[in-house]
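User: Hi! Is it possible to get a structure for several chains at once, not just one? Here's what I have:
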Amino acid sequence: MISILYLLQIMNVQQYLIENGVKPSLQRIALMEYLLTYKTHPSVDEMYEALHEEIPTLSRTTVYNTMKLFVKHKVASLVSIEEKNARFDGNVSLHGHFACQKCNRLYDFSINDQLFNKKELISTLDNFTIEDIQIYCKGICKNCK
Amino acid sequence: MISILYLLQIMNVQQYLIENGVKPSLQRIALMEYLLTYKTHPSVDEMYEALHEEIPTLSRTTVYNTMKLFVKHKVASLVSIEEKNARFDGNVSLHGHFACQKCNRLYDFSINDQLFNKKELISTLDNFTIEDIQIYCKGICKNCK
DNA sequence: CCTTATATTTGCAATGATTTCAATTTTGTA
DNA sequence: TACAAAATTGAAATCATTGCAAATATAAGG
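Assistant: Yes, the chains can be modeled jointly so their relative placement is included. Here is the combined structure:
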């Protein structure tokens, strides 16, 4: 799995955004930093609550807009486990998500490339353009049992 | 992949519901039949629109309640590709979903057990209770290209 | 440094899916 | 038929998300 944190050590968030075609505003940098620092797969509301002290003028709409932009430029991915409450992830490499139905936490799990062969798995989708693959599980996590 | 349609040939929907602990009311039978006949992964609204001519008193709330009941008794599964608009599937065996971002259609695709080994895949989730696994892709389908 | 054009942010109102809830209807049983 | 329990219903409430137009910030040219 590619470590985004490793990338952070060699370049700052501002550069990371620029290199992916996103103009780095104050709000965008703060949001990207939040995604990469806390890997809690936050919802729009969580990010808004966490950052509007630091940035008092921050608007929920800006968080929505920015996440849409991030996903478009592939510096974040949309994790849609729940019907509502979209969550976001700054780790854009292939990995699975486990959603605990008790504590509502979202865990990452690694996917062995040998076990999960993209190309062969989707061979039944001939002539389809795949833009995103997601694997997720629901259940009860270790801590909640 | 286990064929639910094969099951339908040897037992009717009413019996299928009873055997899974769901009391077969008029509404529940109609909804289960709809799920098994049209495999379009319908939304609550689609089912409501399709059935409220046949059952004029049908309420959206009943469709919501019934889907919740079906999922609980594992005769339907919740397919949450979109952030909103939950969709449902009467095929409860393991298979993948592909969502076309143009026509909004939802396609099934089979998953080769040899390629996708549940137990090994989730070995990183030690002591987690897995209740549901979903694999889905987004992109553009054959017809929309 | 000022002016103008462009991009971004903001807050409020609107939308729309889902849930809540109490009343009504249906079903099962004596 | 009468009664109790379960299922259904519709209207109101909730809440995440989107649309939009005004306000603000940024960039470029003179």
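Chain B has two domains: 4-87, 93-139. Residues 23, 25-26, 43-45, 57, 60-61, 64, 84-86 of chain B lie near DNA strand C (CB under 10 Å from a C1').

User: Great, thank you!
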